[in-house]
Design a protein that fits this description.
Pathway: Quinol/quinone metabolism; menaquinone biosynthesis. It catalyses: futalosine + H2O = dehypoxanthine futalosine + hypoxanthine. Its EC number is 3.2.2.26. Helix 1 links the parallel strand 1 and strand 2. The chain has 7 helices and 10 strands. By secondary structure, the chain is α/β, with parallel strands linked by helices. Helix 1 crosses helix 7, helix 2 runs parallel beside helix 6 and helix 4 crosses helix 7. The protein has one domain: Rossmann fold (3-Layer(aba) Sandwich). The protein is globular, with a radius of gyration of 17 Å. It has a 5-stranded mixed β-barrel, surrounded by 4 helices. The structure holds the ligand O=C(O)c1cccc(C(=O)CC[C@H]2O[C@@H](n3cnc4c(=O)[nH]cnc43)[C@H](O)[C@@H]2O)c1. The site of the ligand O=C(O)c1cccc(C(=O)CC[C@H]2O[C@@H](n3cnc4c(=O)[nH]cnc43)[C@H](O)[C@@H]2O)c1 has 20 residues, from helix 1, strand 3, strand 9 and strand 10.
Length: about 230
Amino acid sequence: MNLKKNAAKLNNFHSDRLQTGTRVLVMTAVSGERDAVLRGLDGDARFDVMVAGVGPVMAAVSTAKVLASAEYDLVISAGIGGGFPGKAEVGSLVVANEIVAADLGAETPEGFCSLDKLGFGSTRIPVDANLVKGVTEALFAAGLSVHTGPVLTVSTVTGTDESTAELAARVPGAAAEAMEGYGVALAAQDRGIPILEIRAISNLVGPRDRAAWRIKEALDVLKTASSVLSEVLR
Ligand SMILES: O=C(O)c1cccc(C(=O)CC[C@H]2O[C@@H](n3cnc4c(=O)[nH]cnc43)[C@H](O)[C@@H]2O)c1
């Protein structure tokens, strides 16, 4: 299989199989996330799992560096993330159908103006719909609570109700936020490689309460999701 050529076939992940030699790159932000993914993959040699660092810039630089030295058929940005209230609960998973640099733009007296509106490029990277559908169905079949929707990439973790509401209005349907997806996706897009972003929800987006983050639970969900990915991409 070639994900680039045969994305439509991924609609039926359970019967399709990747061709021998397919390589998948998983970019995480920190070692705890990498280790959770590795536990789930259980030695699946088709996957390389890397620590990119925190934030979109580190993610883009790290991903671009890896992609310059090896060939991959799919790149996945994976880790924990914040769920938008009413869209993704703590302990659930979000599969991005769009990866959005939600704070890339300019503040104006009339409000936020995105890079797109400024005419400097695109803040939105689409994800192949068949890939999203196939992966989401497999995760659901494995008993996980899974949602799809835009996943926002932010440079500053949202910490107030006001900012949460503003982001939700800026990107209708926003399901989760994290800090790396857009950087990873931009590097993959630059090389024409399909991208996925998967976030295990450790906290709700809103007033900052780091003590309430359920990191261990989210990492356990990330591990389970990774074992499903290993199965589904077999
Ligand atoms: O302390 C630990 O053991 C630990 C283990 C794994 C991950 C962490 C992190 O702090 C990772 C930072 C990472 O988390 C993403 N994230 C999570 N929630 C949010 C959020 O509400 N808004 C934005 N980003 C979030 C983010 O991608 C960071 O890279 C700690």
